[in-house]
Amino acid sequence: MSEQNTLNHLQTVTESLESGETMQIRYLLNGALPAQDVARLLESSPPKERKLLWELVEAKNEGEVLQYLSEDIGIQFMKNMDTERLIAVSEHFESDDLADLLQHLPEKIVKEVLASMSIQDRTRVEGLLSYSEDSAGGLMNTDTITIRPNITVDIAFRYLRRHASLPDMTDSLLVVSRSDRLLGTLPLTKLLVSDLNATIRDIMETEFTVIVAETPASEVAQLFEKMDLVSAPVIDSNTKKLLGRITIDDVVDVIRDEAEHSMLSMAGLDDDEDTFSPIMKTTKRRAVWLGINLITAFIASYVIGLFQATLDQVVALAILMPIVASMGGIAGSQVLTLVIRGIALNQIGATNTRWLLNRELIVGLLNGLLWSTVIAILTALWFDNIKIAYIIAGAIVINLLFAAATGTLLPILLKRIGIDPALAGSVILTTVTDVVGFLSFLGLATIFLI
């Protein structure tokens, strides 16, 4: 469904709710729209309307819709379900998606849902629950097609025909030993053109990409991108036994989540921030970062206060101060964003940090000289004071150099000590560029004007 169609359906639903006519809404939610479009409609609705719409979704369709809802909203709905409904909707989920949701539900409910499953399904989900959802083990799906190396291609075809359908994104069969150790892979394209009498051992590929269960999800995404993978087997790091496989659709979710994380973290928001979350919940989440920002603002104000006597004598300085801080903040943010991206892509390490720092310092110096000249000319024309023009030019150069150095080194340092650069980097950078900007500008003014 296109964005415009979503808005059109949302308007139709809103008007129907206001008039009390629910028949058309029921029709949209339970047949006229596919499950993924119903999920988008729910996510685009404020909490009160969202609750009413969810109540109009028929029980038989709940599980399918839940698959497409964001994790935060899906968990809200599931927490309000009784155990019987949870068991019913869990049948619609693939094992990896179900494990992700169960991790956020009360332990008592999780046990009841697991107890309702077949032994095979319960074993699969319990295995996935033992891994972090941000690891390869948490991403993988245990629904795989495995074959032995000593059978023929003809027997493999017969085995495949007995399956009603193959798991989604199946591009190859996984060849395992009797103890489930992964021996190789057999692409379906190769299987189709092979001699029926050839054994799997003769035609399987022994050079293939394999992922250890503890591998971070971000590294899995980079590996898929680098190797152009559709799926990849996951093994136990100790026994080398096959545990499951990761498919490209799971990796797309990881890439999307990381992009949302970076974007929201820059503003100090949580990954699962809901556009239409309740007022108090949103207020609490944002209050922390507003408080941190207030502290940094007081630090910058304290620096300004040190030069109150200078400001009292030269009013023009108060007018020009924001320019110095703003130029440093923009320059630093450009570098910070670039370096955070490089870290996320594993492009930055000990071998190239020095080169990157030197490059950014030179860029900062050249931009500083360029724009300080422009600002100095405008300042001289505005205030008819050549000294102030020289002072603001010098402060611009100094602040852009500090911005370049901070934007480069700060995210690397934060990453090294285990702090997310996307979350804390922008706050610290803004403080540095404000303080250095005010200190250099007002300091130079005190030396040369007073």
UniProtKB/TrEMBL annotation:
It is a multi-pass membrane protein. Gene3D superfamilies: CBS-domain, MgtE N-terminal domain-like, SLC41 divalent cation transporters, integral membrane domain. Keywords: CBS domain, Cell membrane, Magnesium, Membrane, Metal-binding, Transmembrane, Transmembrane helix, Transport. PROSITE patterns: CBS. Residues 204-263 form the CBS domain. The keyword Plastid does not apply. SMART domains: CBS, MgtE_N. Its main location: membrane. It comes from the Bacteria. It holds the Pfam family MgtE. The keyword Isomerase does not apply. The chain crosses the membrane at residues 287-309, 315-340, 361-382, 388-414, 426-449. InterPro entries: CBS_dom (IPR000644), CBS_dom_sf (IPR046342), Mg_transptr_MgtE_intracell_dom (IPR006668), MgtE_N_sf (IPR038076), MgtE_transporter (IPR006669), SLC41_membr_dom (IPR006667), SLC41_membr_dom_sf (IPR036739). It is found in: Cell membrane; Membrane. Belongs to the SLC41A transporter family. Acts as a magnesium transporter. Homodimer. This is Magnesium transporter MgtE. It comes from Marinomonas rhodophyticola.
